[in-house]
């Protein structure tokens, strides 16, 4: 191996023993030189150590080892600390608004119901409304003729007593009314109530003329004859009338009143006094049924 920095000068020949020593000295020198170079490469200068520390502080390591015995003393670097997250409250605020609207609507509805209930209660106490009363005062038979073709011609006169016991409520009876008299589900005659106005605390007698001709088979004739013999003939009087309610001078809506009267009379002989043995009344106001 040739080292350019070693200058060789001509020497005189040496004995063999000296040559051997010289070669061993060269080998030791080379070994020492190699060791020095290796040490120089691995040696770190103090200034290099400070630069390395500054570099390490500028670029922290990605991982931090925590010691369980002294974990409170180790803190993450400032740039690695957890930044608090601020979530948007848009959906929560929207739901809050909807809930507030629903609560407000319910509160308003409850208040309206309470106010209406209070007004109705006060109106009921003030007016003290009572249902009008209807009774059949008399029942007359003007005609009850059986023809050879099994048809029956009848003419009845019914007097209905209408009583209005209310102090501040009046009734107006419309034109589209009807009165029907039936026997064993067969219509005998029919007519209409007159249209009239019934004021406060008033009793009115209504005279209704009913006429009709109907098919009357042998079976009905036999049943009617049996009832005549026993002196108890059942009849059904059906009255339908449109009535308008007036509170003082305020007119309310019109509704239909149905009155069914089950009568039991002693006879149906023409021009003879007819006695009413029993009567049962059933009232219906727009689907509400009352029985007296």
From TrEMBL:
- Give TM regions: 108-127
The main location is membrane
Higher taxonomy? Eukaryota, Viridiplantae, Streptophyta, Embryophyta, Tracheophyta
What keywords does the record list, in alphabetical order?
Answer: Membrane, Transmembrane, Transmembrane helix
What GO biological process terms does the UniProt entry carry, in alphabetical order? defense response to other organism
Its domain of life reads: Eukaryota
Write out the annotated subcellular location.
Membrane
Q: What is this protein called?
A: Late embryogenesis abundant protein LEA-2 subgroup domain-containing protein
One GO cellular component assignment for this chain's record is: plasma membrane
